[in-house]
Amino acid sequence: MFKTESLIAFVLVAKYKSFTLAAKEQQQSTMAISKQISQLESRLQEPLFIRTTRIIKLTEFGENFLLRAKEILAQHDALDIWLDSRKGYLEGTIKVVAQDVQTYEETIFPWVGEFQRLYPDIKLVFEVNESPLDLNQHHHDIYWGIGEYLGIQSPSLKRRSLWQAQLGIFASPDYLKNHGTPKNIDELRGHKIIGHPHSNPNNILVIKSKSDPTGMDVVEVDAPILTVSNQSNFAAQGLGLINALVDNHDIKDYLANKQLIPVLEEHWLSSAEIYIYYQHAKIEQVKIRAFIDFFLSKRQFW
């Protein structure tokens, strides 16, 4: 029988390609994580990682075992939730933060009533912080719909994917009539964008990398308007180009009404992703898991 702690250690080392980062997330020493991996390899009688002074990567056996380890841990988590649900209640407060109201409106707010009927003893607190989040200043249970930067900044956080879609470039017909339709990346530099005041820099368009199809490049352009919301509305008024996820409800509506049209589709970033982050605190896991699992189960309606 495999110890859950050893499987968690293995999955984390595979995730971060680092014993140090895995140890940090588990709040253990690097030596303790290394010992758990060694014991697991001894039990399996197969090496899980190729270790050099520069890299740590999975062996072929390790890649196959990783899939099964994740399945086992997911079943373990599901069993925890089921056992707690049999107690008949979950209680406490869940503090959630997002970086815009639209994310709440599309992925949470329509189903809050149903969640409250299931878990009447859970108090929900929803906040919006439009600036880049800093865990030293912003303490929440769940960080909802946040970019990859938060995981890089705070690798101890756990995360699940919330949304993955193409990141497109859009403009109104009137804007393109007045300023011309860019035919290549170089021509973008003569255009205007509607930027975000907390982006750094705040005058860039994100495009697909020339050298790496899954990577990204940026183009700096003039940004006469910076706003934390209503970018698509301003773009529809003909005030500039915008970057936006193609699955956003407002983008779909503006495209359907021909108030916005796609620009340079061949240069769109193929896969932009936002995440749900949450604290690694065992005592909080049941109610946090219940919240995340419930709202992710509504994904088909987003």
UniProtKB/TrEMBL annotation:
Q: Which residues form the HTH lysR-type domain?
A: 2-59
SUPFAM superfamilies the UniProt entry points to = Periplasmic binding protein-like II, Winged helix' DNA-binding domain
- PROSITE patterns for this protein: HTH_LYSR (PS50931)
CDD domains hit by this protein = PBP2_CrgA_like
The entry's keywords: DNA-binding, Transcription, Transcription regulation
What highest taxon heads this organism's lineage? Bacteria
In the record, the note on similarity to other proteins reads: Belongs to the LysR transcriptional regulatory family.
Give the matching PANTHER family.
Answer: HTH-TYPE TRANSCRIPTIONAL REGULATOR, TRANSCRIPTIONAL REGULATORY PROTEIN
The name under which this protein is listed is LysR family transcriptional regulator
**What is the scientific name of the source organism?**
Psychrosphaera aquimarina
